[in-house]
Amino acid sequence: MKIRITNGMFVAILVNMVYAKAIGVTQGMVAREIGQDMWLATTLATLQGVGMIYLSYVVLKKTPQMDFVELANAAFGRWFGMFVTLALIVFFFGAFGTVMLTFVYHLRDYFLPEMPLFAFVLAALGIGWFAAYHGLEVMGRMAFGGVFFILLLNALILIGSYMEIDLDNLRPVMESGLPKILWASRHSDTDWAMATMVAGMIQPMVKNPEVRGRSGMAGIALGGVMVAMWPLLEAGVLSAEVTQEYFVSCMKLARNAHIGHFIQRYEMIMVACFSVSSILQITMCLFTASIAASKAVGLKDYRPMLIPIGLALGAFAYWALRDHMRALELMEMWPYLALPIAIGLPALLLVARLLAKKRVRKAAEAAPPSSS
Question: Is the dihedral of CA 251, 253, 259, 261 positive or negative?
C-alpha cells in the first residue's frame, strides 16, 4: 500500500481506540461486578492489552508488508483467508455496535433526547465515510487532535474532582479477590482488543517496521494511563455504589466536577472533547472492516466497500440501539465474542505462519516491500 503513517500517528490512533468506550460505558459494567476494585481491573486489562498488541506484532514481524488477511492467504490459501476475513468482519461489526452505543448514549440521553436514533447513526457514518475515504493519514491527524482533547478532558476532570475524592470509598483494596477482579477485567479487555485488531490491519501502513512493536505497546500503555484515572475518580468521588447505577458513569462524574464557584457542570466541554475520540473509533471500525471486505472480494482498493459496509454497520447499530435491553445484552455478550477473536485469531495466524514458513516467505518476497 502507498499509504504510510508515522509511528506517532499509530500510537495516537491506538490511544483513541482504547479511550472513548473505556471511560464511557465500560467502567459502570465493571463497577457492577467488583465495586471499588474497578480501578484494579482496568490496570490488569492494560497489562493484558500490552500482551495482546505484542502478540499482534510478533505475528506480522516476519512479514511487515502484510496484514492479518494477507498473511492468512499466504499461509494456507484463499479459503483460510476468507475465514480470517469473516472473523474480522464479525469482530468489527460487534465493535462498531458498542462504540456507536457509547456515542449515542452520551449525546442523546444527556443533550438531544428528542433527536431520532437514525440521525445519530447517519451523522456518525457521514463523518466516518468522509475520513475513511480520504485515507489513514487523515485519521492519523485526527488522532493527534483526539489525544490533545483527551489530555484536556482529563485535566479538566482532575482539576474539578480531586478535592472531592474520599479515599474511604477506595477501601478495602482487593475486597473482591484477584480471581474475580481478573474476570471482571474482561469488559476492559474488549477495549484493548479493539485497538489490537485495528493494529493488525494497519501495521503494514506504518513506517519503520522495526519499531512497530514498541509503538504498539506504547500506544496501549498510554491509552491505559489515560483511562486509569477515571475508575479511580469515579470510585473515589461518586463511590462504587453510585457508579454502578449509571450506564454512562463518566457523565455523572462530569456533572459533579466544578472549578471554584464559577465553572460548574461543564459536561458540554466534556462531550466536545470526548466526541473526537468516539468518532475516530467509529471511523476506524468502518475503515478496517472495509479493508477486510475488499480483500474478500478481490478488490485492490477498499473505497468501493465503504458505502455497503457502512450501510450494513449502520443498520446493525440501529437495530441494536433501538431497544435499550438489546443494547445492554450486546454489551454483556461482547466480551465472549471479542476476546476469543482478538486472542485466538493472532495465535492461529502465528501457528499458520510457522507451519507454512516456505509459502509465507515466497509470498513476502513477491509482495511490495514495506517502506521505512
Answer: positive
C-alpha cell at 263: 465553572
Encode pLDDT of 17-75 as tens digits.
999 888 888 988 999 999 889 999 999 999 999 999 999 988 988 888 888 998 998 88
And the C-alpha cell for 303?
A: 473505497
Q: Nearest-CA neighbor of 58 among 337, 358, 354?
A: 354
Per residue, the 3-state secondary structure of the chain, as one string, reads CCCCECHHHHHHHHHHHHHHHHHHHHHHHHHHHHHHHHHHHHHHHHHHHHHHHHHHHHHHCCCCCCCHHHHHHHHHCHHHHHHHHHHHHHHHHHHHHHHHHHHHHHHHHHCCCCCCHHHHHHHHHHHHHHHHHCCHHHHHHHHHHHHHHHHHHHHHHHHHHHHHCCHHHHCCCCCCCHHHHHHHCHHHHHHHHHHHHHHHHHHHHECCHHHHHHHHHHHHHHHHHHHHHHHHHHHHHHCHHHHCCCCCHHHHHHHHCEECCCEECCHHHHHHHHHHHHHHHHHHHHHHHHHHHHHHCCCCCCHHHHHHHHHHHHHHHHHHHHCHHHHHHHHHHHHHHHHHHHHHHHHHHHHHHHHCHHHHHHHHHHCCCCCC
**Percent of all residues in the chain with a pLDDT value above 70, rounded to a whole number:** 95
- The grid cell for 128 is 466516518
In terms of Cα–Cα distance, which of 59, 38, 328, 39 is closest to 201? Answer: 59
Span 110-128, pLDDT tens digits? 778 888 999 999 999 999 9
Query: pTM of the prediction?
Result: 0.91
